[in-house]
Design a protein that fits this description.
With about 60 residues, the chain is mainly α. The protein has two helices and no strands. The longest helix is centred in the first third of the chain and has 24 residues. It is elongated, with a radius of gyration of 12 Å. It starts with a helix and ends in a 13-residue tail after the last helix. The model has no long low-confidence stretch (mean pLDDT about 90).
């Protein structure tokens, strides 16, 4: 079973990746893709916030 730090690191990596894909989807006007990615983004963002991670500087989307 992964430790808390491993789970947090994976969530941070996923958060970074999702944001990158969201920016690309927005750039390409891929509305459906953006909407799906946003759901994942909000889930990961909530997980990180509950874990006590301050993501204000890492959050490029700001939604």
């Amino acid at each position: 079973m992964p430790s808390g730090i491993e789970v947090t690191k994976q969530a941070l990596d996923d958060f970074k990746k999702i944001q990158k894909y969201m920016m690309l989807a927005r750039e390409e006007n891929a509305e459906k893709t953006y909407a799906e990615l946003k759901e994942e983004y909000l889930t990961i963002k909530a997980l990180l916030q509950v874990s006590g991670v301050n993501i204000s500087e890492l959050d490029k989307i700001k939604e």
